[in-house]
Amino acid sequence: MCFGTDFFSAIWIRLPLENYRFSKSLTKILRKNQAQFRHEFRPARLDAEKEKLYRLYREHFSGMLAPSLNDSLLDGEAQSIYDTMEFAVYDGTELIAVSFFDLGSESVSSIMGIYHPEYRQYSLGLYTMLMEIVYAQKNNYRFFYPGYVVPGFRRFDYKLRIGNVDYLDLRGNEWLPFRNLPEEEIPMKKMKTCLDSLSAELKARGIAHFSYYYPLFEANLFGFWRVPFFDYPILLYLKAIESESAHYLVVFDPRTSQYQLLLCSNFDEVQFFFQEAFLSDMPNDQFFLHLILIDEVLETASDAKAIAAFIESM
């Protein structure tokens, strides 16, 4: 994820619900808000009342959000394929918070929570998530998915307060205890460390290159064109074999723990995906600002020496 000009990893987490109990501090939040406000679980529906609350929430949110609640939840579609519920919180007759969560066969997935900024002191974002867990437990679901946390960016740390969560380990595609996540295995840190090792190898061989961050890595998420957009947030650019029509880039894939040498080309519709203002504060000497496609994987290697040797032989 990119916040400003800083890059972070999103780590997906889940909470096993078997034998789960709320801590004393969470129980206090639940009891306080249940006594203070009226609440209701019901099938999700979008209406003017929720759009009004979303606008208030968006005005005070320090980051990027979709223009409307409808855009955020339905992404331009007329309806959702998911079985979505909502938890609504009222102060008298006024809606002050609402969260949306999807129901699966054995899991509940938290999608979004919004609240009135004047009620910030009640921890309503956390409260609605706790009530989603209450719903999941009462209906005998096995897992609760609160989304992701972002190590190094504290906005999402409140999700870790719910208990001993697991995280999705990309290497084995398995769930492991979050408390055991090694800092060096956080994907952004792993990619940076491994590309730094390759950079040292390339320098020793006299191969010109430059390290860039790539803020356009999310292009694949928009799906307007079914083409292979480059989706790594950090890369090494090989200046020695650059050309006007092609880019030779090296990445490290934390899912496979392998380096890849890629041949890429420009995709000219960058303004269709990203506003000019988004890129204006990013200097060209640190950020690669061309929207690019992956044309070919030229070489794959598990260590820096091997990929550097292949590049030297080109």
Structure commentary:
The protein is α+β, with helices and mostly antiparallel strands. It has two domains: 2-181, Gcn5-related N-acetyltransferase (GNAT) (Aminopeptidase), CATH 3.40.630; 187-313, no CATH class. It has eight helices and 15 strands. The chain is elongated, with a radius of gyration of 23 Å. The chain starts with a strand and ends with a helix.
**What's the tally of helices?**
8
Give the number of DSSP strands: 15
Q: Rg from C-alpha positions?
A: 23 Å
Structural class, please?
Answer: alpha+beta
Elements, N to C (H/E): EEEHEHHEEEHEEEHEEEEHHEH
Residues in helix, %: 25-40%
Q: Number of folding domains?
A: 2
Strand content: 25-35%
Top CATH class of the largest domain: Alpha Beta
Residue-averaged pLDDT, rounded? 91
Choose one word for the global shape: elongated
Uncertain ranges: none
Could you give me the name of the CATH homologous superfamily of the largest domain?
A: Gcn5-related N-acetyltransferase (GNAT)
The N- to C-terminal Cα distance equals 34 Å
What is the CATH T-level topology of the largest domain? Aminopeptidase
CATH architecture of the largest domain: 3-Layer(aba) Sandwich
Q: Strand arrangement, largest sheet?
A: 4-5-6-7-8-3-9-10
Q: How can the largest sheet be summarized?
A: 8 strands, mixed
